[in-house]
Specification:
binds manganese (II) ion, eight-stranded mixed sheet, four-stranded antiparallel sheet, 3 helices, binds N-oxalylglycine, alpha+beta, globular
């Protein structure tokens, strides 16, 4: 694969699921223009309100006893969307991800029984070193999802690409105007941006327990 399969916002009404097919064939898929610009700006405003109320916390790496802050690995601050500090836009989005989960299960029989998601703000110059979203002692996370909440004036020079490391190629995804879905076993990294960078990261999981919080 030299480029990511790209689908449009109609992906949710197509049967059989084009998203499931793309994931099955390529391991990753870009969904252009979803959510739409109006919803993105509502979500970004909500994230900013949580941030202004000091509701974002520095993100940790690892889980359970291995969980610790490592600003040399990742610099984002996060708030889980089911936290009461998040507003209605977060709850609506989480419900939409629940529908995506149902759709993936119908087509791929993955037995995904939960979805978790957080807002993330990366300060200018920050990033997230190359990693997998699966913890070394758990295969609960099966499918990863990232929705970008940056405004349309985000330029190539602003950086902040999500770099996906596939078998023989690297693919850089500009963090704007869409969502990326990929298998959680794939390695990826967030390259430094020269302005603050906003996203929602989500995981479709095989078991509802064993959460990282
Ligand atoms: C993560 C992650 C990617 C992004 O939170 O695990 O890889 O583009 N985020 O925000
Ligand atoms: Mn990740």
């Amino acid at each position: 694969m030299t480029a990511l399969p790209a689908l449009g916002a109609d992906v949710f009404s197509r049967t059989p699921s084009a998203l499931a097919e793309a994931l099955h064939e390529s391991g990753a898929c870009w969904i252009a223009g979803w959510p739409n610009a109006a919803q993105v700006s509502t979500l970004r405003d909500d994230l900013r309100e949580v941030q202004a109320a000091a509701g974002l916390s520095p993100a940790a790496v690892g889980h359970h006893k291995d969980r610790h802050l490592r600003s040399d690995i990742r610099t984002d601050s996060t708030c889980w969307l089911d936290d009461t500090r998040c507003g209605e836009p977060a709850r609506t989005f989480l419900a939409q991800l629940g529908d995506v989960r149902t759709m993936l299960n119908r087509s791929l029989f993955l037995g995904l029984d939960a979805v978790e998601a957080h807002y993330a703000a990366y300060p200018s110059g920050g990033g997230y070193a190359r990693h997998r979203d699966r913890f070394h002692d758990s295969d609960a996370r099966v499918v990863s999802w990232v929705t970008y909440l940056n405004a349309d004036d985000w330029n190539q020079e602003d950086g902040g690409a999500l770099r996906l490391h596939l078998k023989d190629v690297q693919i850089d995804v500009r963090p704007v105007a869409g969502s990326l879905c990929f298998l959680s076993e794939l390695e990826h990294e967030v390259l430094p941006a020269r302005r603050e960078r906003f996203s929602i990261a989500a995981w479709f999981r095989r078991s509802a327990d064993d959460r990282r919080r």
